[in-house]
Structure formats: structure tokens, C-alpha cells
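Lecture 7 notes: from sequence to structure.

We start with a single chain of 359 residues. Read the sequence below before looking at the structure.
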Amino acid sequence: MSSMWKGNIKLSLFGESHGEAIGVVIDGLMPGTELDLKNIAGEMARRSPGRSELSTAREEDDMPKIISGFFEGKTTGTPLCALIYNRDKKSGDYSKLKDLMRPGHADYSGAMHYKGFNDYRGGGHFSGRLTAPLVFAGAICKQILEKKGIQIAAHILSIKDICDKSFDEVNIENMDCKQLKNSELPLLNIAQEKAMRQAIIDAKERQDSLGGVVECMIIGVHAGIGEPFFDSIESTLSHLLFSIPAVKAVEFGCGFEMSKMFGSQCNDAFYYDESGIVKTKTNHNGGILGGITTGMPIVFKAAVKPTPSIAKLQSTVNIKEQRGSILTITGRHDPCIVPRIVPVIEAAAAIAILDLMEE
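Now the structure, written as C-alpha cells:
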């Protein structure tokens, strides 16, 4: 089933945006794993809506209620299930949209796939709301990875054409991950925050929306993790990253820029550092060769499309009356989903890396 991730760690997402609750079942966690619930709450807060004028006005605390697989502060080894209740629903905003297909949304493709029985309110099961349980699962995986010395952090590389600087792809170990996690707009160059914030507000006032790019790093993964071809680092990460609504492109290392390089420029030359560990002088390949980690930082980027829910008039179709129509979308929506998607991308990365390490 499409809502299940069938790796060594198995995930099953369930629920709809305006249903009673959303949630996740996680199977495959080792028994006796201690969970820091305060840390998990912090990760959930990074993604939760209603925190500022840059996000939707929908207010959800997104505090997960663990109902199984957790006892006396530790995992039991049985399936861990968590519920996140939807408390701030305004389903009436969507009463006119049952037959009008919102451009950029999964309304039409979903109606065709589920033969019209899908819950269309707020996007239903297709909504970005379903990334909340993904962040919960990722927060657990992050805690396990951190005990192994592995850190994951991401920042906003760009919103529209306003750009942050990129990670240092070689000397990244001393990155201040805490500073990024505590920022509403996680940036390496905080001088760009004002321009990005204003661009989002301007788009909101124009009844429009913006997209951007998120860059993520994973450090501390030793060489030799991953499998060639179908279970490669790239294919496993991409599988989870493309499950995030609004992610439309992923590139590793220099990605598309590598197509413009000579081999002599693209290759990462090996050397032994002062501790006798094999490293590379550059990291154009993003810490991955042959689908397997090299021990260098894993670096990738994810492109996020503009939020499709905009108040501007748009052309669409009425599938009940089988005619063209004009649509204006009302309700509460993010003018730019990029800031809230940063912890989701980190969560997907954590799930993928822990899953591969379980091999």
C-alpha cells in the first residue's frame, strides 16, 4: 500500500487533514530505546502551523499521543503507534470544492484514483498535514542516530530567487545545528532573513505563494553504508523525500551542475588525514559513490514548489457538471511552505539513514 514504508523500519501513515486524527505506526524499533519526549515535542513545534504570519493561521499543537509500543520511557519493540488529533478544523471552507478541481493539488488525480470516494477536505490524505506523523517518526530516528554520533540538519537554501549560502561540503563537522533548529527561517547567512520574510509577506498580500530549495546535510555516517542499485543511499533517500507533498526535485552533491563539469573537476580526490582516515579533498558527489557512503558528509537539496492554494482566480473544471469553471480558493493556507518543510526533510533523511544502517 502506498501509505506504508516497507524497509527494515516499517512505517504506516494514516488519517486525513480534516478527519478526527492523523498518525503513524512504526514497526522495527529496537526494544529498550529511551525516547526524549521533550525533544520530540520540539521537533513537532518546528513543523506545526499557526506560529507566525509566514504560515497558515490554522493552529494545531501537534502533540502526539503514543498509544502503544512505549512503556516506562522506553520502546517495547512492539509496533509503536502515535495519534495527532486535528483540533482546529474549518471543513466548511472546502464545501464548494468537492467537484471543483484545485490547480496544483491532487484533487483530480486523487478523485480518479479513489473513484470519487476520497476525503477532499483540506486535501484529505494527500495533505501536507500528513507530514506531522512523519516528523514524529523522524524525531525518534534522529535520537537513535545521535547516540551513534550522526547529526542531521537542514537550512533554507533559497526562497524564490533569494539565496542563502551553501553548506561547506567538506568541512561541515563544526556546524551549529542548534542555531538552525531554533530559527523560524533557518539560514546560514542570517542577513538574508529580512529579504526572505518580506518576499513571503508580499506574495501573501498578492494572494500568491512562493517555493524554494532546502539543503540538508548528514554527518557522522561512516563509509560503506548503503547498497548498489535499488537500495542505494540516493534511491532510499529519494523514495522518502518524494513522499513529502510539494517536493518536486532532489539532487545530491553538485547534482545537475556535474553535467557541466569535466571528469577532472567532478572527481573527488582521496587522501589520508592526520588520523589515517580516508577522506576526499572535495565532495562534489555528496558523500556517496556507487550508492554507498564514502564517510564524507552526505549533502543533498530538495526543491519545494509554491503552495498551490492561492486566492487568485484560476481556471479549472467541474467534474460533476463536466464543464470548465473559475475557482478562487478561500481558507487558511501557507504563502510559503518552505520554512515548515525543513524539519520534514530532516525527518525523512533520518528514517532513510537509520533504515539503511539496520542492514
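The first strand starts at residue 4 and ends at 6. Keep this in mind for problem set 3.
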